[in-house]
C-alpha cells in the first residue's frame, strides 16, 4: 500500500505528518528510576550552584523524581506487524484521509463564499468610481475656467481657448483610469472562472490577486480625486483579504 502516492492523489498542497502510536491494552506498564537521568540533573545542579552560591544547594528526592526523564517505562517487546495489524493501520489511515478531505471541502465552500463576497465588494466600488469620473472631470474643468478667468483679468496676459481645451485634454488623459478599471473587471471574471476549475488552483488565484493589486495601485497613483482615492483604498483592502485567503487554497 503506497501511502505517499495516496496522499498526493487527494491532497495537492501542504505538508502531511503521519504517526503511529502503540498503546498497550494488556499488562500495566511498569516504571524504573533512570540512574543516568538522576546523574545528569545532579551534575547540572552542582555546576549552577558553584557559580551562584557559596555552598552547594540541596535538592529533595521528591523534586528530583518529578523531573522529566528520571522515571521512565521499562522496555517492552515491540509489536509485530502482522497482516491483520497492517490492514487495520491502512483502514485507519484511509478514514483519517477521508475526514481530512471532507473537512477541506467544507472549508473550501466557506472560503469560496467569502472570496465571492470580496469580489462583489470590489465590483460595487468600481461601478461607483466609474460614475464618479465624468463628474470629477467637470469639476476640474470648472476650476480650470475659474483660474483662467482670474488670469485674464491681467490685460497683458493672452490665453487662447484652444490652450484651455488642450490643458483639459492632457489632464483627462493623465488621470484616466478606465483601462485599469476594465482590466480589474477582467481579473475579477477570471478569478470567478478559476474558482470553478477542479484540481490545484491556488497558485493561479495568487497570480490573479497580485495582478488585481497592481491595477489598484496604478489607479491610486493616477487619480487625484479624493472620493475615488478612498474607494480605491477599500478595493486594496478587499484584494489584501483575497490574497490572504488564497494562501490556504490548494
Outline the low-pLDDT stretches: none
Number of strands: 2
**What's the Cα radius of gyration?**
35 Å
> Judging from the principal axes of the Cα atoms, what is the shape?
elongated
Q: Share of helix among residues?
A: over 70%
> Strand order within the widest sheet?
1-2
Number of helices: 8
Indicate the structural class. Answer: mainly alpha
Describe this structure in words.
It is a single chain. The protein is mostly helical. The protein has 2 domains: 32-71, no CATH class; 108-246, no CATH class. It is 71% helix and 2% strand. It is built from 8 helices and 2 strands. It has helices spanning 3-10, 35-52, 61-65, 83-152, 161-175, 178-196, 202-222, 226-246, and strands at residues 31-33, 71-73. A two-stranded antiparallel ribbon has the order 1-2. Helix 4 packs antiparallel against helix 8, helix 6 runs antiparallel to helix 7 (202-222) and helix 7 (202-222) runs antiparallel to helix 8 (226-246). The longest helix has 70 residues, at 83-152. The radius of gyration is 35 Å and the shape is elongated.
Amino acid at each position: 500500500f503506497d501511502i505517499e502516492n495516496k496522499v498526493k492523489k487527494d491532497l495537492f498542497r501542504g505538508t502531511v505528518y503521519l504517526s503511529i502510536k502503540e498503546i498497550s491494552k494488556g499488562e500495566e506498564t511498569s516504571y524504573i528510576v533512570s540512574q543516568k537521568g538522576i546523574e545528569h540533573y545532579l551534575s547540572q545542579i552542582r555546576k549552577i550552584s558553584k557559580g551562584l552560591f557559596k555552598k552547594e544547594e540541596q535538592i529533595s528526592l521528591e523534586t528530583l523524581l518529578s523531573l522529566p526523564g528520571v522515571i521512565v517505562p521499562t522496555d517492552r517487546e515491540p509489536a509485530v506487524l502482522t497482516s491483520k495489524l497492517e490492514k487495520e493501520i491502512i483502514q485507519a489511515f484511509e478514514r483519517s484521509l477521508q475526514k481530512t478531505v471532507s473537512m477541506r471541502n467544507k472549508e473550501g465552500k466557506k472560503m469560496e463564499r467569502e472570496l465571492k463576497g470580496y469580489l462583489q465588494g470590489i465590483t460595487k466600488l468600481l461601478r461607483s468610481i466609474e460614475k464618479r469620473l465624468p463628474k470629477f472631470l467637470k469639476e476640474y474643468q470648472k476650476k480650470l475656467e475659474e483660474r483662467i478667468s482670474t488670469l485674464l483679468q491681467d490685460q497683458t496676459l493672452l490665453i487662447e481657448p484652444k490652450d484651455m481645451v488642450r490643458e483639459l485634454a492632457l489632464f483627462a488623459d493623465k488621470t484616466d483610469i478606465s483601462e485599469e478599471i476594465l482590466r480589474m473587471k477582467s481579473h475579477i471574471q477570471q478569478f470567478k472562472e478559476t474558482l470553478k476549475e477542479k484540481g490545484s488552483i491556488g497558485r493561479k488565484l495568487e497570480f490573479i490577486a497580485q495582478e488585481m493589486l497592481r491595477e489598484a495601485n496604478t489607479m491610486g497613483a493616477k487619480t487625484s480625486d479624493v472620493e475615488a482615492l478612498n474607494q480605491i483604498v477599500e478595493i486594496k483592502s478587499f484584494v489584501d483579504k483575497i490574497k490572504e485567503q488564497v494562501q490556504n487554497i490548494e
